[in-house]
Amino acid sequence: MNKKIYLWSGFLLLMLLACNMGTSAPTPASDLFATLSASTPLSANPSGGTTPVSTPTFSSILSTPVPSTPGQATVVAAASLSAEQLKGQIVFTCQIFKTQASNQICIINADGTGFRRLTTDGDRQHYYPSLSPDGKSVVYAAFLQANIYEIYEMNLATGDVVQLTNKLGNLNAPEISPDGKHIVFKNWSANTDKNVVWMMDRDGKNADKISRVVGWDPTWSPDGEYVLFASDVDGPIQLFRMRTNGKQMHRVSNLPAVRGRSDWSPDGQFIVTYSGEPWHHEVYLMNVDGSNAHVISPAGGNSRGASFSPDGQWVTFTSYFDHYGDENGCEIYVMRVDGTDLRRLTDNDYCDYQPRWGP
Fold first, then answer.
1. pTM
2. What domains are defined for the chain?
3. Ordered DSSP codes for 21-66
4. N or C: which end of the chain has fewer CB within 10 A?
5. H/E segment holding residue 36
């Protein structure tokens, strides 16, 4: 009798233990915690203000936020893009030989298709391209001899190239005026060791400085009445604007450290530029008078050299989201002017930079 009681007691004890084990939750493994953490949306406020800034995504077909950690951005290949609103062409400097001495000029459609190299001389440096207002030609600077860079214009349909300048100095950043009649550019002279904004006729004639003030990376206002440029004439580098006759110059920006090439929106209401310390550059959008300057690029990409789309709804720029810290890792990206819908256009093992958007 006692043996049966002991057997039943043991059986009941085992049943109770089994029930208790079934109600205990297992402890997550460390890799599960990592997975949960990785899938949690990250938030960031790159503008440094008190209002939270939503983190943009690379494409409307993805929901992965862009993290602020350098080199961790999710990428959408150009071939997968649905880009009905991305019109026009983007011309840029392509470092296909991985050395600045052999920089080339390349072009790509704004939807990521149609990539092609424009220049053919692999023994010379070419850089600072921009498209004509009608999208039929590109102007750029190329090395000729020591301290001499000339400005050239290439017909995109025929490939014909015309040299527009003749030993004026170290020239770069040419841009054709909205009416197609003039070209503004930067001239550095070994004699003065100064960068000065110059202007000339479309065919290269009547080239002369439009201001005695130090400045570089000029760009036209949409009405062709003003030129926006970078300068350190007033201390740290900032953006200035002046009339094409050299009058009415005043400072526009008040950023910690403006770096250079900027652009004016087609409606004349906004300016994009970039600022920040080396490897920590960000793209800024501001009103034309410099007010409401704020970061629009996702953090962690070392973003720079922005240019507006012809409709003013998008911005193209250079960044290192996919290869942060790699000197050959810069690619061409586009995003909406509010910083959303970030898309990569190029994906090469060399640096693509200095993009300018045109029709």
1. 0.78
2. 58-358 (2.120.10.30)
3. HHTSPPPPPHHHHHHHHHTSPP-B-TT-SSS-BPPPBS-TT--PBP
4. N
5. helix 30-38
